[in-house]
Amino acid sequence: MTRLVVDPAFVVGALDRRLFGSFVEHMGRCVYTGIYEPGHPSADADGFRQDVLELVRELGVTAVRYPGGNFVSNYRWEDGVGPKEHRPRRLDLAWRAIESNQFGTDEFVAWARKAGVQPIWAVNLGTRGIRDAVNLLEYCNLPAGTALSDRRIANGSPEPHDIRIWCLGNEMDGPWQIGHKTAEEYARLAEETANALRRVDPGLELVACGSSNAGMPTFGEWERVVLERGYDLVDHISLHAYYEPKDGDQTSFLGCAEEMDRMISSVIATADHVKALKRSDKELTLSFDEWNVWRQQEFPGELGLDIREVGPLIEDTYTVDDAVVVGSLLITLLRHADRVKIACLAQLVNVIGPIRTEPGGRAWRQTIFYPFALTAQYAGPTVLQTAIAGGPDIETAAFGRIPALWSTATYDETTGETAIFVVNRSETDKIDLEVPVSGQLVRHLALYDEDRTAVNTADDPDRVQPRAVDTTAVVDGVCRATLPPASWHVIRLSS
Ligand code: AHR
Predict the structure, then answer these.
(1) Residue 241 and residue 78: Cα distance in Å, rounded?
(2) Tell me, what's the pLDDT at 302?
(3) Mutate which of 172, 290, 293, 345 to test ligand 1's pocket (most atoms within 8 Å of Cβ)?
(4) Which tens digit of pLDDT belongs to each residue from 214-238?
(5) How far does the centroid of ligand 1 lie from the alpha carbon of residue 279, in Å?
């Protein structure tokens, strides 16, 4: 028997709803035939697919980062505004595809408003710099009266776009990035850009680039150098991480939330070290603005010599296990809700996305859609600590011995509801869970399957779905539930 204890008195922090963000990059079919497809039967007058918009709303996404990703490091935002017939076709150096620029800044803001999400903007600090970032901000956020704000108005957007969150480049430490930099070079450019952007709009939230992943040789050192220079000018430091089963090691893969947990703790430690050095009162927060499962071992990396029209790229089809892992990564983000204020599931549609589409055809939910949607739906405003007693451990090659149970909980003072999010990471053993409670069970939903490799497809879009667990019950002040191997759960309780 495993006992899980939750008490509204033991608080991690307030949940920032931007933790349920996502990411749209001009990559593969995320934009074209993903969110935007004029001529599609469901497209509205703007060319936005309504079937996709409905799924985005159902997913519960709150904020979306745009336009990249590696794409942004060679992007000229001016190409994507104004009359569509005059927009140039350009070669995108990141993915070696022809970018038609039929979808750009104004379209994205219009789409974000329809989707009900807050836009997060990344500026090009790869092939461009301070002046272009300032120009873009002026175009987007100044009400009127300057050349660029008036140009936005002339282009059909009389109201400022009022974009509040700006990322200072993307993965600038990565040698694959066009215009990548040393930590010192980037730190100086980020500082200068932040300084300039704040002169246009002092109230922006700025995100400095952290490392591209925790495996980078400069991980930790990069963050230290960047923050020592820009600590006072930026609000967040970014983290990126993608997880996959390596060499068929599914056991470690199911435990990979451990890796995310350690990465977050390490970045917090660096940020707090710089804070102490600077004797600053300000607490820097984290933007985990790219995370997901991505089978990178299956991605050739080299894109070949042919320059292509935009087409399918990294359209991973997600399994039940992938969904359990995504659920466990969300649990990790919630466990750090005191410091992680923004997080973006990368990406939103088609490109390693929870939503998949056919060009001209159907749209459906991948397996990973469900833990995201249900966590976004049921997570309450306050994240609570959870304590576990008596649970089994699992032995992993990548992380050593780790607890099979991975959990977090939230509390909603207004409704009195507690939501427990929990994953059984064991591949072999079920867990009999006991939770002492003062109220009643509202509902227990779970995601698992006899066939852990099962997927959703266009022809069988509902093969994998969450299921209600009717055997869970509260008796004599204890909620008892059985968690099958490799399973994700949300258990809602009244007070
Ligand atoms: O999301 C796919 C790519 O992964 C992004 O373009 C880049 O930022 C990251 O390396």
Answers:
(1) 30
(2) 61
(3) 290
(4) 999 999 999 999 999 999 999 999 9
(5) 35
End-to-end CA distance of the chain: 23
Closest residue by CA, ligand 1 atom 7: 69
CA 411 – CA 409 distance, rounded (Å):
7
Q: Tens of pLDDT along 82-119?
A: 999 999 999 999 998 999 999 999 999 999 999 999 99
Residue 417 domain boundaries:
2-9+383-493
As for the ipTM of the complex, it is 0.99
Any idea which of 25-29, 310-314, 337-341 has the lowest mean pLDDT?
Answer: 310-314
Our answer on whether the CB atom of 126 is closer than 6 Å to any ligand 1 atom is no
Query: Both 375 and 419 in a single domain?
Result: no
What kind and span of H or E run contains 119?
strand 118-122
The finding on whether 25 has its CB within 6 A of some atom of ligand 1 is yes
- Phi–psi pair at 368, nearest 5 degrees: -70, -10
CATH number, domain of 163, equals 3.20.20.80
Number of Cβ atoms within 10 Å of the Cβ of 125: 26
Please tell me what DSSP assigns to residue 350. Answer: S
Domain count, the chain: 2
